[in-house]
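Memo to structure team: turn this sequence into structure tokens by end of day. - J.P.
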Amino acid sequence: MTAIFVEVTATRGSAPRDAGTAMKVSPDSIDGTIGGGALEHQAIAHARKMLANGRLEDTQTVPLGPGLGQCCGGAVSLRYTTSPRPLDAATPLPLPNVQSDTPLWLWGAGHVGRAVVAACPPRAFAITWIDSARDRFPAEIPPHVTATPTADMPRLAAHAPQNAHHLIFTYSHDIDLALCAALLKRGAESVGLIGSDTKKSRFSRRLRDMGLDPSGIICPIGDKSLGKLPTQIAHGALISLIARTQTKASA
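Reply from structure team:
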């Protein structure tokens, strides 16, 4: 047995991916995604434990609430199996080849962060890519991207250039919230946050409790009509940022 397929079989309420989504987990690699964050981290760990123990099948229903530190507020049912499941095809989507030196800071080197880096035209932004550990980045970083590992992402955010756009998609909702707070205090050209309407509502309430105005935060990022695949989220987010940059340049 070399891999476990983890499939979302049902969802209740707000969830990061729909039923039918699957990922392939082997001892040293991952293919596909069931939505990232704490849910995916826990599912990967469980699948690898099954591989180590020779277990072939299992099911779980996971609440996406305080226990996982996620704000989706729903629940996801998972099936673990050695039977191959169809994985999402990561088809690149075209973007206009624009040129700008506007800073774009990406917070998180997971599936969506990697999709944004892969999809962004090389000269569209001056990209700084941040995560908490160097080993979370892919082995090869494009030459137009500066990879910046830091143990304290919110502290770095407090020193970001105020003309930078920010896209936040870390593995932790607590870090996401702390980044939003730091960037609202610091000032930014724009702040985009991956998530759901439920996450936006809960973050807005908590940020207001801190005395901050969350109205400028764009959440969820991307374009819902395109879908929930990382490539689709990345495409929608970049189209919006490129349009915003071009509008400002022509003003």
